[in-house]
Amino acid sequence: YQADITKVPGSGRVRGVAILNSEVYAWRDNVGATAMAIHKATSSGWDEVEMFHQISFTAGSNDYVEGDTLSQGGVTATVKRVVLESGAWSGTAAGRLIITTPSGGVFSAGAAAGGGACTLSGASAVIALAPGGRVRTDAYTFTGSLADKRLYGCDGVNSEFEFDGTVYVPLNTGMGSIRASAVRCHKLHVFFAYRGSLQHSAIGAPY
To answer: pTM for the full model?
Structure first.
């Protein structure tokens, strides 16, 4: 059966492999080595995972949930993940929304509505991964449900991340350009190792 096994598309070494709920994912630089892509093993071969957009917000006063519409004038997108990084949905919530490609134009700084209410900090940007590094991951669920099990990881080059097989979420750790080299989840914390420093998330709150 060796002849039936296809290579992960791209160039250079495979940067990492992970299994999440029996699905296999692999990271590898693209053919031109200008970016790194995630591929999922399927019955028909390796399929590249779509990367969504992310957009920052402040002054959140009504929370969005996954599947909601984010709207601003005639511009709309579907919310895939709500990344609450500080405050509360009483007027001080701040963080990012992972969204589909905007339709009807480009979001701009200002009030937004739809399924919730917040103030956008500017236009959205597609999530892109720089080439290189070595991907390390740890599968973990913060709710005890397998449906909520996700990969938490780092590669030493890009921002640390959360990935559920569909939605990729870069994490803001506050370490600037210093990237983690190891990851482990334990007792409702995500731990990252930075050189000689070990840091962790809030309890039950990886964002």
So the answer is: 0.95
